[in-house]
Amino acid sequence: MARLDDYLNGRTVLTAADLNNSETTNANHNEHPLVGILGQFREARFRLVDRVETFEPERFSHSLVHPRLEKPTRLVDHLYFVAEHDDHHLALIWELINK
Q1: Would you write out the chain's pLDDT as a tens digit for each of its 99 residues?
Q2: Roughly how many angstroms between the first and final C-alpha of the chain, as a whole number?
Q3: In CATH, what number is assigned to the domain containing residue 27?
């Protein structure tokens, strides 16, 4: 959501990702039931989609510099990355469930 704000608020560089994943670590997800984690995940994705649905079409081609890659990143590319990243996590969860 912070990066969506970046695209909407006229920033030139995207907010840097927390590569230490401290928010996830501090949330102590390993101690919570899977159904709750998946529910929160689903809610977060619905909030993201609901928000993006309000954007004007031309917004999706707007580019900001990615802080680590130092390359222009269009909103549509960022959203594609988020979807692929989510899919990665869901695939790992699926593997854990089916062991």
Answers
A1: 999 999 999 899 999 988 887 877 788 877 888 888 889 889 999 999 999 999 999 999 999 999 999 999 999 999 999 999 999 989 988 898 888
A2: 33
A3: 1.20.120.450
Instruction: Give residue 55's domain range.
Output: 2-97
pTM score: 0.84
**Two structure tokens written together for 42:** 């689903």
> Which one-letter amino acid corresponds to residue 81?
F
Q: Are 79 and 52 in contact, with CB atoms under 8 Å apart?
A: yes
